[in-house]
Design brief:
The structure holds two protein chains of two kinds. Chain A is globular, with a radius of gyration of 13 Å. By secondary structure, chain A is mainly β. Chain A is built from no helices and eleven strands. Helix content of chain B is 0%, strand content 51%. In chain B, strand 7 and strand 8 form a beta hairpin. Chain B is globular. Classes of the chains: A mainly beta, B mainly beta. At the A-B interface, strand 4, strand 5, strand 9 and strand 10 of A face strand 5 and strand 10 of B.
Chain lengths: 114, 113
């Protein structure tokens, strides 16, 4: 596609439920990144993929968070047993290759945990 | 870890005024990036700086990479309503390549008509 797309755009869930967030990177981009943005804050790095492997998972806040990428394209971020503090905007970005500072961001998924 | 501190946190200006914001770090960054985020959207890259002392312009925007490598500033001249949004500085932590970016807290720009 022309840009990074994410779905759903908004998600409201109840505490304790699992959620899956999807990211479609720009076609041909091998690197994919997930960030979290809490209200009024900057972006917090979560995880990075090069192809289908995740060399850097250092930003995942807990073992309730996991992510996978298949076919070197689509990525899914899963949050299990959601907590209210998980409420945030989850942003996905892609770049042509690792080491490319020009990361192109999607519009984000706004997650609200009640 | 490495952190970026942006100031001011928010600005309220009149249309047509010039804007200046800056970003500082306690450690060296080899690349400085400036992004703008509109409501409901992801950040969009405005300017990238790769060399200490570098001064780069993009239309009415001008950014500089501080010679100490620990700071950068962004100026916007003759602001217009579409400049409203949140501006973030960002950079890849040193020695970790560009696999992730560290972001400042953002400067929220509001323009009074």
């Amino acid at each position: 596609g022309a840009g990074v797309s994410q779905s759903p755009s908004n998600k409201v869930t109840e505490k304790g439920k699992d959620v899956e967030l999807r990211c479609d990177p720009i076609s041909g981009h091998t690197a994919l990144y997930w960030y979290r943005q809490s209200l009024g804050q900057g972006l917090e790095f979560l995880i990075y993929f090069q192809g289908n492997s995740a060399p850097d998972k250092s930003g995942l806040p807990s073992d309730r968070f996991s992510a996978e990428r298949t076919g070197g394209s689509v990525s899914t971020l899963t949050i299990q047993r959601t907590q209210q503090e998980d409420s945030a905007v989850y942003l996905c970005a892609s770049s042509l290759d690792k080491g490319q500072e020009t990361q192109y961001f999607g519009p984000g998924t706004r997650l609200l945990v009640l | 870890g490495q952190q970026l501190n942006q100031s001011p946190q928010s600005m309220f200006i009149q249309e047509g005024e010039d804007v200046s914001m800056n970003c500082t770090s306690s450690s060296i960054f080899n690349t400085w990036l400036w992004y703008k985020q509109d409501p409901g959207e992801g950040p969009v890259l405005l300017i990238a700086l790769y060399k200490a002392g570098e001064l780069t312009s993009n239309g009415r925007l001008t950014a500089q990479f501080g010679i100490t490598r620990k700071d950068s500033f962004l100026n916007i001249s003759a602001s217009i309503p579409s400049d409203v949004g949140i501006y973030f500085c960002a950079g890849p932590p040193r020695f970790q390549g560009a696999q992730k970016l560290v972001f400042g807290q953002g400067t929220r720009l509001t323009i009074n008509p």
